[in-house]
Amino acid sequence: xxxxxxxxxxxxxxxxxxxxxxxxxxxxxxxxxxxxxxxxxxxxxxxxxxxxxxxxxxxxxxxxxxxxxxxxxxxxxxxxxxxxxxxxxxxxxxxxxxxxxxxxxxxxxxxxxxxxxxxxxxxxxxxxxxxxxxxxxxxxxxxxxx
Length: 146
Hints:
With about 150 residues, the protein is an alpha+beta fold. The protein has helices at about 10-30, 35-50, 60, 95-105, 110-115; strands spanning about 70-75, 80-85, 120.
């Protein structure tokens, strides 16, 4: 059964403005609820890696953003369940090495291991495209040229 409703003339423009903003957010976040969850997961990963950062690595880490963190999806590899990790293909190699080093320091912490699922480094690099908001003049060399 279809119920028709008539909206107040004052509400329609507000709804149109909201719908326009929503599509902008969808483009930025990747377009789906799953992408929003992935982005939130990458944001938590960025913060946790930043917590174990050494003084000599701060300069390189300044170029790290949420968009440069690895994609993680749950799965099973060889009978072991955990997060399947795929680094983005556009991330610089030296930043990738730093991420691996910081992650190993995190996983050496018993509290981190107790509260986080196992990370399974399996699979090719992520096919995610560089962010829509990418500006080469502000990039500070954080991306590799494809």
